[in-house]
Serine protease
Amino acid sequence: MTRSPAKLRFYPVIFAGLLALLFSGAARSFSPIALCYDKERDIVQSVLNGTCEGDVVTAEEAQIIRDRIKRERLSRILPAMPHSGNDDNSAAEKAPSRARIVAFGTAFSIDERGYFLTARHVVDHCDTPNLNLADGTGFEATILMRSPDQDIALLFAPALQLPPLLARPDHPARGDSVTAIGYPEQGLPRIRPGSIDGVLQDISFDDGTARFLAFKAPVRGGNSGGPLFDDQGALVGMVIAKANSVAIFQASGSRVRNMAFAIANESLDRFLKESGLHLATYPRAERDTAPDDTAVEMSGHAKSPLDNESIVRVVCRR
């Protein structure tokens, strides 16, 4: 669907302000907020008063519902033990893990030797990150490096060697179609990845380097650390957050819905170079000359990014 020029011009104006609110956690208290329980999705959210599409609940009722959801999440997570690469693990299989699950997210392969990227906040409080395939098989990972100033972390799972995602060699443009792939939570964590389509709204540059992408799409918790693809299946960034619509409205009076953010390829690549790694990219000639319906296939990717085995779920335990 074509976006009007007026609407596209609006988002660059507020882009810097959205980033500031996103990372500062700014909030004010002049607008009443309601706790809304969505029975269909089995989730409690903070919304603007009068906009709840489910049942308005008290703080105590919300806590009871959230505690029940947490218990159900833990009972629904597949109990597969992580693979460490050692076949003689019968003792480990008999000993149940006492580690508590504290976060879920998404990661993707950037090197077939077992290197993965994810969002730093997914693993910040994690002692033992596991990378799970869509069939539930888990692989133990090590946190090799965290960016001190960006939401990026590098994981290493030597027993999980998957082909790397291929990155777009140039910048996407405003108005381009994008797709986020990940394991978003909808009351309970997903077992298989899901896709969310959106439209790129703006790009933030720092000294000529693309840093952030703002795109219009309804991402959710669990999408963090997942890849953002262009319409040919090439990686253009890593999803890190969605805009806090309530905080933005409280601070500015502007209603912004379904705005999300990703870290651009150039910033990801700069981070990886510190450890001697880099993003694999599509050959330019291939992208420029291949028909739209074969460009992805020629690069070794499935036609649908959802079919890509190199995107895994992160289960963070502590």
Summary: The helical segments are 5-24, 59-76, 90-94, 120-123, 245-252, 265-273, 284-289, 292-298. The first strand starts at residue 33 and ends at 38. Residues 1-13, 23-32, 87-96, 290-303 have pLDDT under 50 and may be disordered. The longest helix spans residues 5-24.
